[in-house]
Every structure is written in structure tokens, then in C-alpha cells.
Design goal:
The protein is α+β, with helices and mostly antiparallel strands and 436 residues long. The protein is built from 12 helices and 12 strands. It folds into 4 domains: 84 residues; 102 residues, PAS domain (Beta-Lactamase, 2-Layer Sandwich); 71 residues, Orthogonal Bundle (Helix Hairpins), CATH 1.10.287.130; 151 residues, Histidine kinase-like ATPase, C-terminal domain (Heat Shock Protein 90, 2-Layer Sandwich).
Length: 436
């Protein structure tokens, strides 16, 4: 009799433990209760059914097999949940009711790898070093209300972290064998997003400022012509109309450059690529700007290495636009009787070709050199606007160079001039020999 009682008792204990692990105890409890009652009835002689006693081991084995299947499903679901957590870009940290870490995913370890090889067991205050987060965790443990905390870390280059604090009751959903209440921290690094938001705000402010000046001038001249047109001398009227046309041209140029910059920055923008002979490109640009340089009394000189005919691969219109911007920039900052050289260096095999625009104009102070390719950045804002510049030309040059696998650099000495250089990878030559 004692052995008969021990066998089902062991099975009952094993099945109960399996169901607790699987998180589905109620159906098992009812089935086990029925089985135990059957065993006890047979043991004390209250039921004389021999057939029921004989069928009990089979029922227990079937029940055990069913529970093992459910355990396998629960384990599979738990592994799936773990895989999802590991794949998330946000840091996921599970805290128990004492604010200590019981689980952390890969992203969380990457966020705080400098805290040590393990995060489990660390208190949230030790982990993040921020009282604000500790206070939010304690409050959420108390009232189960979700909270969001934004903190700026003093370490790791001052990252901006956005932390969502959510109550989990019980935390066995994510961490087995623990029925206590806890909180889940969802941690996102918002540093890059804030940088982009700051750039967007600055961009909108700069565009608004650039448009406000010509619009104010146009409005003033138009109102003057409208209210006092009959009493204004013809030469004065002509001057007002000229100024209106000039300011309108500035806005058209600004909108054009903004659209060009937006196109260059768009992800996945298709480029019509081909082979571009550098010498032909440069000669055509010299011919294009020669009349403008002559009007300003500036010598525009082609510098061509003898026998050099490099080929680059890319969009000819974009490369032309980048070179035009550099020449236009040189014309704006070179005084009368100055000199502008445009040419390229003869590249060695498998090296990049360097296309340069060199002037002996006013030059750029060293403190401005790192910023001249930023949008709307002007070394001499007043002169640039007077010349019709939009403040986007050099930024467009940078985007075009980088989209072609190259870069652009500047060297300058204040009062002695500047040299802008676009470096581009060489392309395959055309099938036919290049004309020499």
C-alpha cells in the first residue's frame, strides 16, 4: 500500500512543478486533484473499483505527457520572447521589487558596458547613477503608473537617454520562478534624434531669416510704388524695379539651392552615372565664366597638366554644378586684378584625381575653415548676400563630392587666397580613345 501511494505522489509532485514552470496551474490542479482523490479512495477502501485502480497509471502517464508538451510550448514561447528582446535596439531592463536588475538584453549591456561585465543584481541607482530614475522606479512600484524620464549622462559623451518605466506584475512573465511585482525599463538613446531635431530647427530658422530679408525689401519697394507711383521720378521707379528683381532673384536662387540640397540628401536618390572627362568639364566651365571674370577684371586661368586626360565616373551635371559653385565662390571673394586658377592634378595609377579652384583673394581665417561647408555658414555674410550668394553653395559641393565617393577640402591663408579641392576616384576609360 505504501509503494502504491509513493508512485502517484512522485508523479503529482513532478507534474505540479512542470505546470508551475509553464505558468498554467489551474487546469493541472483540477486534473491532479481528481487523480489524487482516486488514489486515496482506493487506498482507504472507500471505492472498490479495481478497474479504476488499474487505469490510474495510464491516466497519470497521459497527463504527464500532456504537461510535457505544454512545458515545451511555454519554453518555446519564452525563447521567442528572449530572441525578440535581444533583437531590440532599445535597452530592456527588468527590475524586481527591490529595484535590482534581474534581466537585461544585449542593447542594455551595450549601453552600460562600462559599468562592468554583468548588470544582473545591480541596483538601478548604481546602474544609471541618476536619482531621477530611481525615484520614478519607486513611484511606479508603488502606484503602477507608467512614467517617462529623460536624462543626460555625464559619461559616454553626454548621451541623452529616454527611459520608459512600466510596471510588470508579476515579473515571471519575463523571468521564471519569480512571482514578485517589478518594473520594466525601456531605454532609448535619443542623442542622434535630438541632434537631428536641433539641425531641423536651425535649418528652418535660417531659411526663414534668408527669406525675410528679400521679402521685406520687395514689400517696401512695392508699397512705395503703389502709393506714390505717380510722384516718383522715372529713374527712381526703374531703380525700385531693379531692386525688386534682384531680391526676387535671390529668393529664386535660394529655393533652387534648397531643392538641390534636399535632392542630394534624399536617401536612395538615383543618379545618372557615366564617364566624365575631367579636362572637357574644366575647359567648358572656364569658357562659361570667362566673360564674368573679365567684367570684374579677374584673370581666369586653366591649369592643365600636359598629356593628362583623367576620367571619373559619376553624374556629369552634378560634377559640373559642384565645380561651378567653387568658381562662383572664388569670383565673389577675389578682388579686381586678381587671379583664379582652375585645373586638376595628374593622378598616379589607382589614385584619385584632384580637381582644384585656387584664388589669390581675401582668404579665410583659420577659425572658419572647419565650418565653411555647413549650410548657411558665411565668412562674410554681408558681402555674400550683396553678391547674391545663398550660403548653400559649398554645402552642395560637399554633398556632391561625397555622393561620388570623394571629398572636398579647403586650404587658405587670410589675405593670400584659398584653394578648394575636390578629390574623386578614377573611373574606367571609354571604349574609344579619348581625343587628345
Amino acid at each position: 500500500m505504501q509503494l502504491w501511494l509513493l508512485l502517484p505522489a512522485a508523479a503529482v509532485g513532478g507534474l505540479a512543478a512542470s505546470w508551475i514552470y509553464a505558468g498554467r496551474t489551474q487546469p493541472a490542479h483540477r486534473a491532479l486533484q481528481s487523480a489524487v482523490c482516486t488514489v486515496l479512495e482506493d487506498a482507504i477502501g472507500t471505492t472498490q473499483s479495481t478497474q479504476r485502480a488499474r487505469s490510474l497509471p495510464t491516466q497519470l502517464l497521459q497527463l504527464n505527457a500532456a504537461q510535457m508538451d505544454r512545458i515545451a510550448v511555454a519554453e518555446s514561447e519564452r525563447q521567442l520572447l528572449r530572441s525578440v528582446l535581444e533583437a531590440m535596439e532599445e535597452g530592456i531592463v527588468l527590475l524586481d521589487d527591490h529595484s535590482r536588475v534581474v534581466l537585461a538584453n544585449r542593447a542594455a549591456y551595450e549601453l552600460w558596458f562600462h559599468r562592468g561585465p554583468t548588470l544582473v543584481g545591480r541596483h538601478v541607482l548604481e546602474l544609471m547613477g541618476n536619482v531621477q530614475v530611481d525615484t520614478a522606479v519607486s513611484a511606479t512600484l508603488r502606484d503602477e503608473e507608467p512614467r517617462t524620464v529623460r536624462i543626460r549622462e555625464q559619461e559616454a559623451l553626454g548621451r541623452l537617454l529616454e527611459i520608459r518605466v512600466v510596471a510588470v506584475d508579476p515579473i515571471s512573465v519575463l523571468h521564471p520562478n519569480t512571482e514578485a511585482r517589478g518594473v520594466l525599463l525601456i531605454v532609448a538613446d535619443s542623442t542622434e534624434r535630438q541632434r537631428i531635431e536641433t539641425m531641423r530647427r536651425d535649418f528652418v530658422a535660417n531659411v526663414s531669416h534668408e527669406l525675410q530679408t528679400p521679402l521685406t525689401s520687395i514689400q517696401g519697394f512695392a508699397e512705395t510704388l503703389e502709393s506714390e507711383g505717380a510722384g516718383i521720378a522715372p529713374e527712381q521707379q526703374a531703380r525700385f524695379v531693379h531692386l525688386i528683381r534682384r531680391e526676387t532673384g535671390r529668393m529664386v536662387a535660394l529655393v533652387r539651392d534648397l531643392m538641390e540640397l534636399a535632392r542630394l540628401e534624399a536617401v536612395g536618390t538615383a543618379q545618372r552615372s557615366g564617364t566624365v572627362p575631367v579636362d572637357e568639364l574644366v575647359r567648358s566651365i572656364v569658357d562659361e565664366f570667362q566673360p564674368q571674370a573679365e567684367r570684374k577684371g579677374i584673370a581666369l586661368v586653366l591649369v592643365q597638366p600636359e598629356g593628362s586626360h583623367p576620367i571619373v565616373r559619376g553624374n556629369e551635371d552634378e560634377l559640373r554644378r559642384a565645380t561651378q559653385n567653387l568658381v562662383q565662390n572664388a569670383l565673389q571673394h577675389t578682388p579686381a586684378n586678381g587671379r583664379i586658377e582652375i585645373g586638376w592634378s595628374d593622378p598616379a595609377p589607382r589614385q584619385r584625381v584632384s580637381l582644384f579652384v585656387r584664388d589669390n583673394g581675401q582668404g579665410i581665417a583659420s577659425e572658419h575653415l572647419l565650418r565653411v561647408f555647413e549650410r548657411f555658414y558665411r565668412v562674410d555674410a554681408g558681402r555674400s548676400r550683396a553678391e547674391g550668394g545663398t550660403g548653400l553653395g559649398l554645402s552642395i559641393v560637399k554633398h556632391i563630392a561625397e555622393s561620388h565617393g570623394g571629398d572636398v577640402t579647403v586650404e587658405s591663408v587670410l589675405g593670400q587666397g584659398s584653394t578648394f579641392t575636390i578629390r574623386l576616384p578614377l573611373g574606367s576609360p571609354p571604349s574609344e580613345p579619348h581625343p587628345r
